[in-house]
Specification:
With 431 residues, the protein is an alpha+beta fold. It has 2 domains: 235 residues, Barwin-like endoglucanases, CATH 2.40.40.10; 162 residues, Beta Barrel (Ribosomal Protein L25, Chain P). It has 11 helices and 17 strands. A 6-stranded mixed barrel has the order 3-16-13-15-14-17. Strands 5-9-4-10-11-12 form a 6-stranded mixed sheet. It has a 3-stranded antiparallel sheet with strand order 6-7-8, with no helix packed on it. A hairpin with a 5-residue loop joins strand 10 and strand 11. Helix 8 crosses helix 9. The relative contact order is 0.26.
Length: 431
C-alpha cells in the first residue's frame, strides 16, 4: 500500500471498541545490527500489563484538507525516557528506523515539522547502535512532541492470505488486476504549491481527464478482455478485504504463495462499508468487526455485492518477489512495529509512542505507511503482520488514548521560535 492506499481502512466505525487482549508468543532475540536485514527484524512482544490511558469516547476530528501539523500546534511532551519504552519494542523500532533512514534524510517532510538534515545525527548513529541498548538510542536522539491535543485513535491492518490462482479456473473467477496503462496519475503539487503531496487519478478521453471506472463498473467488466489479470481470487468478499488492506498473499492450488502489493488505485473516494452497514441497521451488537461484516456479506450475497460497490475505490496490484509488504516509504513494513499515518501530521519514518486503552497496541511504533482512511493528527493504523493472530487483532483493533511524536532533539524549540525547552508543558506519560 502506498500513498492513497487503503491501509486498515475498514474505518473507525467498523471495529469493536474493546476485545480481550491476545497473549503474544515469545520470540527469539534479534541478531546484532551488523548482520541485520529485513528478515532479521523481530517484532516486539508488547506488554499486556503496562498501564494505559482510560478510553476517550470523544471522536477524533479530521481537519480540513490542506491542514498540516504546525497549524494544529506543536508543544513539547515528557522526556523520552519517561515513556517506559520496553527493550523488545525499542529493538524492533530501531531496526525499522534503520530501513527508513535513507529515504528520511532525502524526502521533503509534508508535515512541515522537520528537514532532512534534522534526521542525520540519528541516522548516522543507528547502524552501529547496539540493539540491546535500543531504548537509550531513542532517549539520546529524540524528544517528544504533542500535536494538537494529542488525543489518538488507532485501528489495525494486516497482510491477509486468501485462496487464488495465477490462471482462471473453476472456483477462481474473481480477477486481480494489475495497474492499467491508461490510468493517469497527476501530481497536483506541480501546478499549485499549496497542493504539494496531493495526487489526482483519472483517464484521458478526447483530450480531457475524466473519472476512471469505479468498483461497480470494474466488477461489471469494464477492464475485462484487456489482459490486465494478474491473478484470480476464489472469494469476492475475501478479495474485497485484501484490497482494503492494500497487500496480501494468494495461496495457490499447488500450495505455493504469490505475494501481491499495492500498485495504484482508480482515484475514487474510499467508503468504509462497516459504518454504512451500521448506520443502515444491518449489523447488530458484536457484529461490527471485520469478521462480523464478512459474515453478513456472505449470508447476503446480492445485497453484499451492492454494499461493497458503494466503496467506489478499486486497488490495482503487482507481484512482490522480495521483502514486503511495501509501505509508502518504499521499504518493507514490519508487523507489530510499523504504522500508517497521515504524512501531513507525521513525518514518514518518524518514531511515535501511543498509550491506548488497548494494551497490545500501547508502545513504540514507526510511521512507514499511509492509508486512504488514515487522515488527521494522531490517527494511526497499526500493522500486525500476517497469519490468523494478526487477522484477529487487526480486525478488532480500535484504540483511543494519547500520542507523542518522537522528533529530533531541538525540533520543538525551533518550531516555536525557541520558546519551549525540552520536556516543558507536555502531557503526563502513562508508562
Amino acid at each position: 500500500m502506498a500513498a492513497l492506499a487503503l491501509a486498515g481502512c475498514v474505518g473507525p466505525g467498523d471495529r469493536p471498541m474493546s476485545r480481550p487482549a491476545p497473549v503474544a508468543p515469545k520470540r527469539p532475540a534479534a541478531r546484532p545490527a551488523s548482520s541485520q536485514n529485513f528478515n532479521d527484524i523481530v517484532p516486539p512482544v508488547r506488554s499486556q500489563s503496562r498501564a494505559v490511558l482510560p478510553t476517550l469516547p470523544e471522536p477524533i476530528l479530521t481537519p480540513p484538507d490542506g491542514t498540516k501539523a504546525v497549524a494544529m500546534g506543536v508543544r513539547p511532551g515528557v522526556a523520552v525516557a519517561a515513556l517506559g519504552i520496553e527493550r523488545d519494542e525499542a529493538r524492533a523500532a530501531l531496526a525499522a528506523f534503520r530501513l527508513s533512514c535513507p529515504s528520511l534524510v532525502r524526502r521533503t517532510d509534508a508535515s512541515g515539522l522537520t528537514r532532512g538534515d534534522d534526521w542525520r545525527p540519528a541516522c548516522a548513529a543507528a547502524p552501529g547502535w547496539r540493539d540491546g541498548d535500543a531504548p537509550a538510542f531513542f532517549a539520546r536522539f529524540f524528544e517528544t512532541a504533542v500535536i494538537g491535543d494529542g488525543r489518538a485513535f488507532a485501528t489495525g491492518y494486516y497482510e491477509p492470505e486468501i485462496a487464488g490462482a495465477r490462471d482462471r479456473r473453476t472456483g477462481y473467477e474473481v480477477p486481480v488486476y494489475r495497474r492499467p496503462p491508461d490510468l493517469i496519475e497527476a501530481d497536483l503539487g506541480l501546478f499549485a504549491p499549496d497542493l504539494k503531496g496531493r495526487k489526482l487519478r483519472g483517464q484521458a478521453k478526447d483530450g480531457k481527464l475524466v473519472l476512471y471506472p469505479d468498483r461497480a463498473a470494474i466488477d461489471g467488466g469494464a477492464l475485462s478482455g484487456r489482459g490486465l489479470e494478474l491473478a484470480w481470487a476464489a472469494d469476492p468478499v475475501e478479495f474485497f478485504f485484501l484490497q482494503v488492506q492494500g497487500s496480501g498473499r494468494l495461496r495457490l492450488p499447488d500450495g505455493q504463495v504469490m505475494r501481491i502489493g499495492y500498485d495504484s488505485q482508480n482515484g475514487r473516494d474510499y467508503v468504509g462499508i462497516g459504518k454504512l452497514m451500521k448506520d443502515r441497521g444491518l449489523l447488530g451488537p458484536g457484529q461490527t468487526s471485520m469478521q462480523g461484516i464478512m459474515a453478513w456479506l456472505r449470508a447476503n450475497p446480492a445485497e453484499g455485492r451492492a454494499i461493497m460497490e458503494t466503496n467506489k475505490s478499486f486497488v490495482f496490484f503487482r507481484e512482490l518477489t522480495g521483502a514486503g509488504p511495501i509501505g509508502a516509504m518504499g521499504v518493507a513494513v514490519t508487523g507489530r512495529t510499523s504504522v500508517a499515518a497521515d504524512p501531513a501530521f507525521v513525518p514518514l519514518g518518524a518514531p511515535l509512542f501511543v498509550s491506548l486503552d488497548r494494551p497490545e497496541a500501547t508502545g513504540l511504533w514507526v510511521a512507514q505507511d499511509t492509508g486512504g482512511a488514515i487522515k488527521g493528527a494522531n490517527r494511526f493504523d497499526t500493522f500486525w503482520g500476517a497469519g490468523d493472530e494478526a487477522r484477529r487483532i487487526a480486525g478488532g483493533m480500535s484504540g483511543r488514548g494519547q500520542a507523542w511524536l518522537l522528533l529530533p532533539v531541538g525540533t520543538v524549540a525551533r518550531l516555536n521560535g525557541g520558546g519551549f525547552g525540552a520536556g516543558d508543558g507536555g502531557a503526563t506519560a502513562r508508562p
